[in-house]
User: Fold this.
Amino acid sequence: MRVTGTGHASMRIDTAAGSILCDPWVNPAYFASWFPFPDNSQLDWETLGDVDYLYVSHLHRDHFDAAHLRRFISKKATVLLPEYPTSELEDELREVGFTRFIRTKTNEVTELDGGLKVLIQALTSPTDGPIGDSSLWVEYDGVRLLNQNDARPTDLTMFAELGHVHAHLLQFSGAIWYPMVYELPNAAKTAFGKQKRERQYDRTWRYIDDLKASHVFPIAGPPCFLDDELWQFNDIHGDEGNIFPDQSDFLREYAKVGGSNAIVLLPGTVTELTADGGARTEHPVADLDEFFANKEQHLREYQERQRPVIEAAKQSWRHPEVDVLKEMKRRIEPLLEESVYLAKGVGGPVRFDLVGYDGESIESVVVDFPGKQVRPYADEKVRYRFRTERALIEQLLHSGEVDWVNSLFLSCRFSAARIGQYNEFVYAFFKCLSEERLQYAEGWYAEQKPDAEDIKLGDWIVQRRCPHLKADLTRFGIVEGNQLTCQLHGWRFDLPSGRCLTSVGHEVRARRAGTPAPAEAEPAPADPAAG
Assistant:
């Protein structure tokens, strides 16, 4: 099996039974803020795109690049489609020209021609990617590969049970806007960023230890930021709170925990894998260390090549003909009326401060979740506030974008402030600005059941599954004193009270070991007047 790095989470997998191209991304994403690092635009995409199969893990725009797919990837390729609850991924792939699909069943092996086997595990929580994320397992002639990209399954046991994995490709770097965009003192922002960077690595080490593959490939990040306005987000400034470490940093940190089996995939790197665990790698650069030592120079040259692209994108965002308040009311108010779980979860008004073309004037719009309306700001207290350019909201409304998380928020072209804890329902709602997405998210939250199984962690008896996204706490739970941390997403809980310290709601069931479980409540006596 031959693996060719094609940038970010993208790779081409070649076997004698066929080739698979995964997540090809070249063009800037998220309002021209994210670019692949290193630059992959100069690869021979005509040749790379002539493949038998295409796998797009999910609809995040650093994985689904519509323009690139339309221009360079052979429409004869058969798409390996994850089993998602909505048809959006298939619809968008058909829109760019693909007509051949294999609809896989999650966690089931699919046998393709010539002995090539694949399995796609689809994650379907409303908080997984844009309504879904997935991992691809591939086997041919005794060689097995897991492309986990940036999916976060609760555990990797199922993949390990299919046989020893020779190549494990997974995310290690940040892919979020926190804490950089928050209006915080620099010292606090650095402290929170350092904590997040450490959590990212802790999660990565846990996945690597679970699978115990022959070789580990750090992929799916970091992006780089070539707009002057966002340049500070690149990890070249010696900031220990930067959440976007690169592959060379991964190698250093991995070595500290005893890791010695990592292989870096630059665009153009080729690794040949064999069933006995062997791996022969050739890089497109003579010296890997020297390449990363000259990272800033690479980025500056890349920036100059892409500057016209960024400027052209910025010119396209303004739509003064869009009445923002009127259009937000038209788009969002019907969804607020239908929302039960998300609206209750948000629990209050969310304010958008829109900065005008002059860079000074501000129009403030409130999405009032309890009141089920979009209206002008009325000087009330809000727990969440976002500040961004009016032009960006105009573009979202003009284009009919249904996922403001997978556009505005990931762009980092905004600032945010909040009172109190993180609230996942705010972002879940703005990811679901369509009837299909909202109904799915509401149904998913409605179907969540209490977790009845308990486990022992340290001196505590706690429920086995994390209240956040059902991660197995036997694998991801760490107890320190009276506090539980789920390392999958870094959520923390106060054990004596059960209170979540990271977000509103999501209480955990816990008691000290040796104390009896609370008795189940007796059913209430029947009301003789009822019926």
